[in-house]
Structures are given as structure tokens and as C-alpha cells.
Write a structure and sequence with these properties.
Blueprint (H helix, E strand, L loop, with lengths): L1 E3 L2 E3 L4 E4 L2 E6 L2 E8 L7 E3 L3 E4 L2 E9 L2 E8 L2 E3 L2 E3 L4 E4 L2 E5 L5 E8 L2 E4 L2 E5 L2 E8 L2 E8 L5 H21 L1
Antiparallel strand pairs: 1-2, 3-4, 4-5, 5-6, 7-8, 8-9, 10-11, 12-13, 13-14, 14-15, 16-17, 17-18
Organism: Caenorhabditis briggsae
InterPro entries: Mig-18-like, Mig18_Fn1
Pfam families: Fn1_2
């Protein structure tokens, strides 16, 4: 006989406790499997996983006699949109790709079909295109520059920004 949550069970009896299907054995209570989220009958056996509705349901064995039920979203969620693994999209000039582990990879920046790799600057037809990251934020800047080299254009833009910041601090 087994005793669980104030109830007595005979050897061989199976019962539900939360997300788990338990069975009373001579050696004690054994976890048979996990009931799937929002389900009364769908059962995953211990160690089994199943993909349904864009989610991976796992009845994970974490040690002797220990089982954990886990539901993981597949793909990525960005700005309220769901993306599948490997899918690429652009949001506010930044090009993303959904990685296998559900994280986002920033590929670079896009403007009118022109792709600039993250961390690169480009001078083309008198326009500078910059795609860079500061901490966790990615920036895309585009500005006109008549200088002869990209380095001069970037330096000029940084110098202008520093002067603007100094004026704000002094004011």
C-alpha cells in the first residue's frame, strides 16, 4: 500500500498528482509520466518529448525517481511576433535571425535593400551607412558626407556628436 497527499492506494493503482501520473508499486510511488499542459488524457512517458502547436513538451528525468515537466517555446519571440528557427526578418533597419536555442542573432542592418554587417561602416555615393552595437542595443545611422574617406566621415560625425553632448552638459 502507498500513501500520497492524504490518500491510500493499493499496489498497482495509478493516479494523478498535478502534472504527473503516479503508480503505487511494492517499492513505493513511481512516476510513470507527465500529463501534457491543459490535458486530462494526453500522457508523455518519463523521458519522452513531443512537439505540438509550436511548443516542445518534455517529461524529463532529472534523477532517480525525479521527473520534471517542461514546456518550451520553439523559435523566437520578438516585439510580440513569433518566428521559427532559422527564420530571418527586419525590424527598424536591423536584420535578425532566430537561432536553434530561441535566441536572436543580429546579422546586420538593411536600408533600401543595402545590407551592412554588424560592426561595419560603408561610404557609398556620398552617404555613410553605419551598423553597430552598444551594449545590447543595435544602431543604424545614415548620413551625408562629402569627405574623401570613410574614416574622415565617421570621425567628423563622432566629433559633431561629442560637441552636441558637451553643449547639453554645459547648458
Amino acid at each position: 500500500m502507498c500513501y500520497e497527499n492524504g490518500m491510500h492506494y493499493n499496489v498497482g493503482d495509478s493516479f494523478r498528482n498535478g502534472s504527473f501520473k503516479l503508480t503505487c508499486r511494492e517499492s513505493g510511488i513511481y512516476v510513470e509520466g507527465c500529463y501534457m499542459q491543459n490535458s486530462f488524457n494526453d500522457l508523455l512517458m518519463s523521458g519522452e518529448s513531443r512537439i505540438e502547436n509550436g511548443k516542445r513538451h518534455e517529461c524529463e528525468i532529472i534523477g532517480p525517481g525525479k521527473v520534471r515537466y517542461v514546456v518550451k517555446m520553439l523559435g523566437c519571440n520578438h516585439e510580440g511576433q513569433q518566428y521559427s528557427t532559422g527564420q530571418m526578418w527586419t525590424h527598424q533597419h536591423v536584420r535578425y535571425q532566430c537561432k536553434n536555442d530561441g535566441t536572436l542573432l543580429v546579422l546586420g542592418c538593411i536600408d533600401e535593400g543595402l545590407f551592412i554587417e554588424l560592426g561595419r561602416d560603408l561610404l557609398m555615393e556620398g552617404m555613410v551607412h553605419r551598423c553597430y552595437q552598444v551594449n545590447t542595443t543595435v544602431f543604424y545611422h545614415k548620413f551625408a558626407c562629402e569627405r574623401s574617406s570613410l574614416a574622415e566621415c565617421v570621425s567628423q560625425s563622432m566629433h559633431r556628436r561629442a560637441r552636441r553632448y558637451a553643449k547639453r552638459v554645459v547648458a
